[in-house]
Amino acid sequence: MDNEQPNSAYVQTVVGGTVGLVRDNMSAQLMFRGETSTVGLPGPTLFVRPDLDAREEGDRWLVGATLRLGQSAARPSHEFRLVASQTTRHSLNPLDSGAARLQSSAEPGLRFEILDTPLGVGLRNDTQEARLTYEYTHPIDEFHVITGGGTVEVEGGRFGTSARFDQQRLSLAGYGQDRIQVFENLSVTAGGRFVKNGPYDFFAQPRGSLTYGLGRGWVVHASAGYGIGTPTLEQRFGATLDRQGNVDLVQAKSKTADGGIGRAWGARAQVDFTGFRHVYSDLVVLGSVDIPALRTIDAFQQLTLFERGQYLRDVNDGLRDPFTTTLLDLRTGYINLPRSWAHGLEATASIRPISQVELRGVYTFTESEVTTGTDRIKAGQSLPQVPKHQATFTGDVQVGPFSASAAMRYVGEREPGIDVFTQALGLDVVESYIRWDAAGRFAVTDRVMLSVVGENLTGEVYQDVLGYPALGRLFRAGVHVSF
After folding, report:
1. What are the tens digits of pLDDT across the range 326-339?
2. 172: in domain
3. Coil, strand or helix at 73
4. What angle (nearest 5°) sits at the alpha carbon of residue 152, between those of residues 147 and 154?
5. Which domain holds residue 275?
6. Contact 30, 19 (CB under 8 A)
7. Which of 389, 383, 281 is nearest to 344 (CA)?
């Protein structure tokens, strides 16, 4: 891996596997995955000196089982899914590397001192989860299918310095869906979910969609629904070196609608254009951070109005040093953003000029706005981390035993998330970037395949989160054996 950022060491070990069984009208599958990793936590290396001893250690395991009874499309089927997982994340900062300083861009007369408080025992963000789902599918005939089921989920969390999983949550959900081919060219689907997540109120989430064939390969489609987003245990109770939970979070609500038109030219080409509109209330975002203002500094408060003006002029002229205040807690907290919306257009296209080559492209244009904001996220600004322009282009080639794929991803400018550094330095944009990835596979025999993957091939220097440079070039190779 090519990455020259200080303290960006990243080590990960993963093992996983699946085993399946098919017999008559029954199928079963078991799967497992386990991983352990250690990653350096340099802090925002573009803004302050990196903390070379800080790191995060993590482990995760997951096991799952699926049992399906009834394989015929004309007969009812029953499906049971059980998944259990545990994730541990331990943030450590064992040494005091000394204080760092930031100059406020909004107030030239103020300087922030950031203490590096050692925390050898670290902070934990550990979660456990077990989920059981049952789904029943009943095909009334080839044009009418009814589906229903339910889920029971149990979660536990161990956060901060807690030694036990003392945060618990039980969630229940039931859902149903009716899909019917009304006419030869009209298909309608209606359904909904009924959920009760932990301490939150019972909610119903209706949703419906339809597709209508216009002929000559043209199809129009539309859908609408109401949804909720439940804050995770980590968002409510979590504690890391840079984030803290908010126990008072409420569930986010959304109203969504979309509609579009598409056309297919057999298997050779397809295009689709979809417009969408989303309206949010109480969206969960990072937005709570304590940044002192110059007027709160005792020494500045004691100055007269004339002395304050003279002081600011002297600082600008380099004759006096700014007042210095200590930032005791750098952590950003989660909040509910009262009201916001996003709407836009998504265009997709695929073409297969010859049977061995397929090209695909997706472009999304999104306008978003905060209509009712907070003290940090103002009304009128775009939603944090939502770019106006995004695009992905991919290509696949297969010739005999050899296959290859390449992808280009473009992410446009966007508002940064809220943290101490964006607020203190007055940063208001995350720059756009283009990233290239590629992969190749070669089938040596029917049971042995070689593969190679390259990510960020051009070594693009970019940031998904402002201040934290993304990884550079990465290459990995593998051997796949089936038996």
Report:
1. 887 788 899 999 99
2. no
3. coil
4. 155
5. 250-286+340-483
6. yes
7. 389
Q: Give dist(CA 104, CA 426) in Å, integer.
A: 8
The DSSP secondary-structure symbol of 296 reads: G
Domain with 354 in it: what CATH number? 2.40.170.20
pLDDT at 433 over 90: yes
306: left (phi over 0), alpha (psi -120 to 50) or beta: alpha
Nearest to 393 by CA among 435, 448, 453, 337: 435
How many structural domains compose the chain? Answer: 1
**Which one, of 475, 458, 350, 482, lies nearest residue 408 by Cα?**
458
Neighbouring residues of 428: CB distance < 8 A, sequence distance ≥ 6:
415, 416, 422
For residues 383 and 55, what is the distance between their CA atoms, to the nearest angstrom?
Answer: 30
Instruction: Please state, in angstroms and rounded to a whole number, the distance separating the CA atoms of residues 145 and 135.
Output: 13
pLDDT at 316 over 90: no
Give mean pLDDT, residues 55-62: 94
Separation of alpha carbons 406 and 436, rounded Å? 7
CA-CA distance, 168 to 153, in Å (whole number)? Answer: 11
Supply the pTM of this predicted model. Answer: 0.87
Name the band, by pLDDT with cuts 50, 70 and 90, for residue 3.
low
Dist. CA 156–CA 168, nearest whole Å = 4
Predicted confidence at residue 1, as pLDDT, reads: 42
- CA nearest to 325, candidates 306, 347, 345, 299: 299
Residue 165 in 3-state DSSP? coil
Distance, in Å, from the CA atom of 405 to the CA atom of 479, rounded to the nearest integer, reads 17
Mean pLDDT is highest, among 18-27, 71-80, 348-357, for 348-357
* Position 102 in a domain: no
